[in-house]
Write a structure and sequence with these properties.
Distance between the termini: 10 Å
Strand content: 5-15%
Structural class: alpha/beta
Helix content: 25-40%
Largest sheet: 5 strands, parallel
Number of helices: 7
Radius of gyration: 16 Å
Number of strands: 5
Shape: globular
Length: about 210
């Protein structure tokens, strides 16, 4: 049994599109894309590690420093080792206006996370886990989250190309989730129900192709 760690934010957690600030639900376990992915990958233990609000490497001055994905990553890797593969999908929360970072900055931040994963000795035999680097889909500034992500939509359009370039530099496989799903028109950040099966299928194909048994 190999282990696949899904390291992400609210869209890995399964957060539903939000009708208002502080009004959020979560898709049922079997409906979320991580749960669906587990069923498509027999022989893999699929661990969903999605934290709403998680950034790549920023302490959030509003929502809390514990949302820093770099700070907590080593502990999560150690707690689940041996980890064969990490599916890394972060960057959406970095688009919040409070962080003032570019698409290039976000890609470089993801590079740093990949280097941490590779140096973690959390893989089988204390080796390096494999990494599938995923670009989240572009966001839309609508609904209750529009103000929080002001200016982020334009930057998000460049994110896939920047993360693809980072994956090339790192020599890790890449998947553009924006080619598979779109964000919900309700809040412009989270995914509608139909995105879950589509993502699960795309990720299953990528894992099988890039990390064959």
């Amino acid at each position: 049994m190999r282990t696949l760690l899904l390291y992400g934010d609210s869209n890995t957690h399964g957060t539903m599109p939000m009708q208002g600030l502080g009004v959020s639900g979560r898709f049922p376990r079997d409906d979320r894309w991580p749960g669906r992915l587990a069923k498509l990958l027999p022989g893999w233990e699929v661990i969903a590690e999605g934290h709403p609000g998680r950034t790549t490497l920023h302490d959030d001055p509003v929502e809390g420093a514990h949302r820093n994905g770099l700070t907590v990553l080593p502990a999560i890797l150690e707690s689940h080792r041996p980890v064969d593969v990490v599916l890394l999908m972060l960057g959406t929360n970095d688009l919040k206006a409070r962080f003032s970072v570019t698409a290039s900055d976000i890609a470089l931040s993801l590079e740093r996370l990949v280097r941490v994963i590779r140096a973690s000795e959390a893989g089988p035999g204390r080796g390096a886990p494999g990494v599938l680097l995923v670009a989240p889909p572009p966001i839309v500034e609508v609904g209750c989250l529009a103000g929080m992500f002001a200016g982020g939509a334009a930057k998000s359009q460049a994110l896939a190309a920047e993360i693809r370039a980072a994956a090339t530099r790192l020599d890790v496989p890449f998947l553009d989730a924006g080619a598979v799903v779109r964000v919900s028109p309700i809040d412009g950040i989270h995914y509608d129900p139909e995105a879950n099966p589509a993502l699960a299928e795309a990720f299953a194909v990528a894992i099988r192709q890039n990390f064959p048994g």
